[in-house]
Amino acid sequence: MAFFSGNKQADDQDETAKNTFIFQMYPKNVLVTGANGQLGSELKRAVVGHNDILNFIFTDVAELDITNLQAVDEFVKNNKIRYIINSAAYTAVDKAEDDIDLCYKINRDAVRNLGIAATNNQSKVIHVSTDYVFDGTGSRPYVETDPVCPKSVYGKSKQEGEAVLLETCPDSIVIRTAWLYSIYGNNFVKTMIKLGQERDALNVVADQTGTPTNAADLAKAIVRILDYTEANSHFEAGIYHYSNEGVTTWYDFTVAIHQAAGITTCKVSSITTDQYPTRASRPQYSVLDKSKIKDTFGITIPEWEDSLKVCVAELLK
To answer: In which domain, by residue range, is 57 found?
Structure first.
């Protein structure tokens, strides 16, 4: 099949035909990295009984070391991977300030490896990033084109991961998310429930504003992106923002967690960031504008309070 004629209009049509041909003929295997983390675990649930079109291959470090370029390239090639969903990350924000080499190895260098392997094997990448790429000095929801200016080692490593991915594999999707939690792994929701059950009082920062994200909702959004891509034979590469809807603070988030969990014996008091110093700097304001991802893929995003209640109900089971 020829895809070049010398006539621009005809060549544009042939390019579309070429892309459609590749989508139709290329195996529909999906590699998911970080499969044992919060998002990876939720992706496992999200694809159960979904459809028979895509075949998901879930890996964590035991199955695939993404910091090893040769291993990644061979895995993608041998398994004929069509999509790579990278949910693997170094997320210990404070520890990263001292564990710099490992943080960058996972959040930047491994992402470069995935980008190179994807380009070598005509694969597409969906990579999950963070609101920490912003400095948090804004006063309106951040859009994808706003300048990035991370203030922590973690944020810088994630921002550089975005950059090297889009450099090595421009045909990629980067999804920035925020305040992620789920029924899996260690997260703020689980910690606040545990402390609320053990203590009479808690002090929580009230001057950092953002939006919690139930990892189950993000997993469904990613699957929706794959469905959209398959249905339209077109991959809408670029940077997108995703969190649940609404705005809150860590203090109000904690109060809502305790209400959802039926915790009434623990008094939650508000404090300022200055009263609770941490090793790494956090964005004071990191609300994300989700218009682009909603408009592009037709995604409906739940309110954060509703998604929190769903998660807490599952945890209490």
So the answer is: 8-187+211-245+283-302
Q: Please identify every residue annotated as catalytic.
A: 154
Residue 229 lies in a domain: yes
Residue 175 DSSP label? E
197-220 mean pLDDT: 98
User: d(Cα 185, Cα 250) in Å, to the nearest integer?
Assistant: 19
**CA terminus-to-terminus distance, the chain:** 57
Per the CB < 8 A criterion, the answer to whether 76 and 117 are in contact is yes
Give domain status of residue 266, yes or no. Answer: no
How deeply is 271 buried, as exposed, middle or buried, from its count of CB atoms within 10 A (0-12, 13-18, 19+)?
middle
Question: Tell me, what CATH number does 106's domain have?
Answer: 3.40.50.720
User: What's CA 86's distance to the chain center, in Å?
Assistant: 8
Whether residue 193 is contained in a domain is answered as no
**What total number of domains does the chain contain?**
1
Burial 283-317 (b: 16+ CB within 10 A, else e): bbbbbbebebbbeebebebbebbebbbebbeebee
Helix (H) or strand (E) holding 173: strand 172-177
Give 237-298 as a DSSP string.
-EEEE---BS-EEHHHHHHHHHHHHT--S-EEEEE-GGGS--SS---SB--B--HHHHHHHT
Q: What is the pLDDT of residues 91-126, one digit of tens each?
A: 999 999 999 999 999 999 999 999 999 999 999 999
The answer to whether residue 195 is domain-embedded is no
> Cα separation of 281 and 298, whole Å?
35
pLDDT in tens, 129-145: 999 999 999 999 999 99
Integer Rg of the chain from CA? 21
